[in-house]
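Priority: low. Protein: CHASE2 domain-containing protein. Input follows.
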Amino acid sequence: MTRAQQLGVVIGLAVVVVLTLLRASDPQLLKQARDVTFDEYQRLSPRAYEPMPVKVVDIDEASLRAFGQWPWPRDRLAKLTDRLAEMGASAIAFDILFAEPDRLSPRNVLRDVPEIDPTLLERLPDNDEVFAQSIAEKPVVLGFGLTNEGSYLPPVKAGFAFTGESPIGAPPRILSATPLRPQLESNAAGLGHISLNPSDSSAVVRAVPLFLSDGQQLYPSLAMEALRVAQGASTYVIAGAPDLPDTMTAAKIGDFVVPLTAAGELWLYVSPDTTERYVSARRILEDGDMSPDVSAAIEGSIVFIGTSAAGLQDVRTTALGQNVPGVSLHAQIVEQILSGHYLSRPDWANGLEILAIAIAGCLLVLLTTFVSPVMALACGMAITALALVASWVAFAYAGLLFDPLAPILAASITHFSATAFRFLVTDRERREVRQAFGRYLSPSLLYRIEHNRNALRLGGDDRELTVMFVDVRSFTEISERMAPTDVVTFLNTLLDALSRHVIANEGTLDKFIGDSIMAFWNAPVDVANHPRKALRAALGMRETLARLNADDAFGFGATQAVGIGIGIHTGIACVGNMGAETRFNYSAVGDTVNIAARIEAACKEVSFDILVSEATAQALPGCALLEAGALGLKGKTTRTRLFAVAGDEGVASSLDFGELHRLHSRLIENLRARASTSRSLANAAKLKAAAITPGLVTFYGRITRRAEHFIDVPAEQESRIAE
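Result:
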């Protein structure tokens, strides 16, 4: 081990220790990133809405228009309660605070009027009494809010039983609550808190406390009380940790067992907001609207009463990024319990994530120092993929929440630190080679150059190359309709996507010429089967362009697709560093390059996107090639035989292409013989071609007009045709 390697290991391990300790301290930024990651999981796979006996009676805009602004007089709420009870609701839970006397009660309205007879006041109805009488002996649950003022704590209508150690100190603390009207409090079948995230500063509701504690007594949430009352249960059974006090693991209420966090919270697994969850309060209250569908929706359901009206500001944000009425989240809690679809983050999740950071960090440091940064990067990518896949699978199939972000981030920082050290200290010589050739060579070619210096011979060098030219069709028309900056953006998007296929197939990017690409294969080092790799690059460009057009990546709309022409030729060319002493370019020159450029230009005349020369076609046995005729190329005294590329070996072996190839051979024979059946054969080939590649349809649509390209011409006429 060299001194540089020793120093690299020490620095790398120090970075790993720092990152491990940072994750163990779990700063707020990491918590927020973890929450966002779990939100994204829910957005990718939200809980599906399933019809369940849970409904929200919504005091919506239509209800306010029909019955006036909020708050409503409580005799109207009494009527709403009576109607719901008549329809057979199993529980009626109000996500509404009843802390003050009803100011719209006739007794309260007239009390301050001068000279009113006190005996008259006593005879006037009191809406609070009317409401209290209405909820008596009905399965009604009222909600209470939290406050930091006073010392009022509501009575608890249910009993509690504990297993394991006492969990009394686990839930969030309740210091004081908003007092309810006494007659309402005493007549309600259940009382529950309506706070969804009292101890969380985030606007997004992710985990909701199902219980609160004052240190001596537990207080259930509105949703839990509604579920209890609906089942006619009288006791909550709370499971604590066997050897750990002030910790909750689960709560049993009636027939349902709900897994909880250590603090008595439920990870909310939300479904998208849907109108199927809501019934307008107007439809319940209006005498003439007792439709069967409303009665069927209410019968046997747990009903939550709340508001979605914008002016009443009871709006919460879910993990899906939707702004929904707060009352709907109480309903979703019960829906989630009834469905049995839960999310949980095991107690050992933090330890597992910390251990993963330490192990992965040490592995990356050793690989970067003693093997190669590339190997370390591959390992890092594998760790990233493994963390993402494992985390997603755990979420999707088991509802478990594991954070992939912290291990991935730590691995990235570790790899960057170790690679930066090696780059600065030990890879200076290789950097010089990479700086010279890294802009236009594939990674595999660079690796071979670095590890075999004899493979790189600079200067003029005659060798067999496969040369490709790519050009954008109708670029002048496209650019005339666009601003210069938009033209640059268009070209960058297109050329970047296309040139990737050259690099991926071990080609060398020679240059970009406006809207064109020049590339070649088999230099600066030997590339086996270079014509076939050039063909694969061209087919990849065809597929990529089709995808970009389908996705409207250029913003031209569905009616205007971008087209390209690709010409490929194989032959001897001179390749090497060319230019001035202080500024040069690694490029290829010669007749082979010129022919490739002319073939690309011939794509317009042939009406097809990929053409290869006969020399290239001979090096591509087994590929799906179709004779495109012999064309006179500019500057050539004889015509050049060209072939249209329909696909690779897989296409060539297909039954469709076999039938097309036989039709094509007959068509060529008829064109050479100037037979009258050429047009019918071309139409038949056009029908077969549509199933192979759409471009062949226009190819066959034009082929009969190019009959002269398939007729043998005496040698003395060849030069005149070319001119």
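Confidence is low (pLDDT under 50) at residues 715-723. The first strand starts at residue 54 and ends at 58.
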